[in-house]
## 1
Amino acid sequence: MLHAHDSSDKGDSSMIAAISDVHSNLEALKGVLAKVTRADMILDAGDVVGYNAKPNGCIALFKKHRIRSVLGNHDQSCITGDTGNMNPVAAQAIDWTRKTLSGTSMRYLKRLPEKLELSIKGRRIVVMHGSPMDPMNDYVFPWASERVLERYLDMEEADILILGNTHVPFVNKLGDRLVVNPGSVGQPRDHGTESSHAVIDPVRLEASILRTKYDIIRVSNEITGAGLPVFLAERLFQGL
């Protein structure tokens, strides 16, 4: 687990950019990173790779921009080769990604923790891919009840809980605490074709979801050109 304590003097506010589920979509990642240049840090809720055609490029940008990430279920499958819980299309993409990853990229994935715990401006922030019930594989959708979300916040003793995995963004403020899913950078599934990310002010306990256009045609051509399933290219145009 990573523990980070903010000791810099940046006034009474700071900004966190939260991303998730980049899934090897380099064009989408570049677009989001261009929008969050003023963020004090970038936190990622997992699944750096899988589905799309540029895993090594995405990992290189994560390292360049010092993005702090947790391990997602697709990242884990790339490490282990175990695709038993995946549908055939996702499993095929994992097999392709494992063959494509450089040794440096694989080592990067193997170093990712299942959970990040940070203290920023006096707020305890916890990041994971799934949920406190199953940090790697669980799904927490926008319609999750407040009682469930409050239980998750209590389990982690968190002021801000950042989750991924669903590819569907939401912000839920529960009193003086926040649960945020930034949605997906690389494969949105809320019927929108634009990348999704979140901006969080940990002092004011405010968060918003932002969308970013990217060159879907280029990415879809990369997918088909790499021999990945055509469905993975088609779904980007539908936001599914």
Note: Residues 14-114+183-237 form a domain with the Purple Acid Phosphatase; chain A, domain 2 fold (CATH 3.60.21.10).
## 2
Amino acid sequence: MVLKIEQDYGRFKQIIRGHVKKELRKYITSGELIGKQGKKLVSIPIPQIDIPRFRYTDKQSGGVGQGDGDTGTPLGEEDGVGTAGNAEGYHIVEVDITLEEMAELLGEELELPKILPKKCEKINSEKNVYRGIRQAGPQSLRHFRRTYKQALKRQIVSGVYNPENPIVTPFAEDRRYRSLKIVHQPQTKAVIIYMMDVSGSMGQDQKEIVRIESFWIDAWLKLQYKGLETRYIIHDAVAREVDAETFFHTRESGGTIISSAYKLALKMIKEDYDPDQWNIYPFHFSDGDNWSGSDTQECLELLQKDFFTFCNAFCYGQVESEYGSGQFLKDLTERFGATHEKLITSKIENRDKIIDSIKTFLGKGK
């Protein structure tokens, strides 16, 4: 029987889930929400208003219903007049929800399809399962049902079993134990390689958009792959690999050579991630500026020759900047078209477009 407290808790969770889903776009685009995350939880602020109730005081005269008055006379104090009160008011309660639940809600809201990983027959993981039965083993692994059946069979065959007095007493030879078997299972792996332009034209607002979007892309892909790895590359005129903290908080200046990041990403893939065994997702975020047309042509060749061959999909997000020209997205579209099988592009004008960008990147289930 389900206890009432468990029913109430389940109903509370459904209410919270419904509220979060209703306001999901607001929460997803909030950098403050990411900042409140714990190890596996994020804190969601839920508005709460206490139920109104009468409060009696020691005052015995005056008030509603006493004394003279004309029709239309306002009750109580006038607007803006009065003393400090002692009543409770509007509160914000923070509830914790797991990142997995948030990612599931994101998937439901955006109708994201489940990703079908590559079958990696060359990589196998070993899993211990208790599927076999044997006649010897520790008491902790004794299989009570199989032991009872064996004892019952023995008594029926020997003629000892009495249906009117169905007592079954297992002997030592009746005992059966679970046995360990090692099962080899195909293992799927995935890596995300984030690349971000940190040149002078990419301001703090643009980097914050990249930070928020990449966080939720991570959360969704972690639902699809248990062994997800993440690598980070920043670039201006030169690219280098950094950790997550540096990726999201670096302030750089100078020019932009996009091919430097693409070459470093390809070096990572060739050295550490066999395309036959890994699902590879490069994400590049930029404001669309590049140093020269010749470098842009080199980037397009790298995409055509290498990235489209090695990767599940190459995702390019162009963040709007008052200093960026946005030319790189135009060059990508002109070369590969708007519906290329492996190239997914998104234009992110502001924070409100983060959700739409995530939908564009992950909506094809690649």
Note: The chain has eleven helices and ten strands.
## 3
Amino acid sequence: MTIDSTVVELRSVTFRRGNRTILDAVDLTVRAGEHWALLGPNGAGKSTILGFAAAVTHPTSGSVQILGQRLGRVELQALRRSIGHVNPRHPLQSPLTIRDLVLTGLTGSIETPPRWEPTLKQIQLAAELINQMGLTGKDGDRWPTLSQGERGRALIARALIAEPDLLLLDEPTTGLDVAAREQLLETIDALEHDFPRLASILVTHHLEELPSTTSHAALIAQGRIFKAGLAEQVLTTENVTAAFAHPIRVGQHDGRWFALPGRKRSRELTRF
């Protein structure tokens, strides 16, 4: 894979649930090494797009290609092994250790499969990733005892152990306090250096939750992509105000984004 290889490609994608159109005529291209953010109001369709990228949702019409494979024409389990997915609502019920949790990324399962034993090399790789995520010495700590921040970083290690080409982050800072949020975002920022060819897509509602390494962004509203492209060109006061249908002032400080209330105008805000 070259640095400009296409990792995710949506073309004229529509998704309907019953009589409701969730997404309509969506086009999106993500290439290797790019770090995308999907932002928009609740119900805009962000999670549905992430579902396409995760190869768990199929379009009603249009085409979705992930890592050169078209959904509907590929063996899904094999494709999903090349996709790392971080969901803070990870439905683990057993008190697995961090090491065992990370190793489930190799089997693509929530629990450790019966009679499955990792190799020494796999155990060593898990330990390296745990250290990279700032969890040194916590290999044996169990899931129920972990803070939300520790869980988030452990889940990133789990997503990376299979050496994916695509990393999906579904509102990864949900439930974190400010310090834990910043620690997690620092961990995500470090991925650009440690895994330079990895592409990522992050879903969030809040600009302040964007990693500083965010290179591209898509604003989604009413089931359509309003604007998509380089983050600095997309995340402007005008565009964010229009996408959220509310006056929002957007800015950057030390590479991080922030949003503040915008001035109310007498005329109706631009909608699309």
Note: Residues 266-272 have pLDDT under 50 and may be disordered.
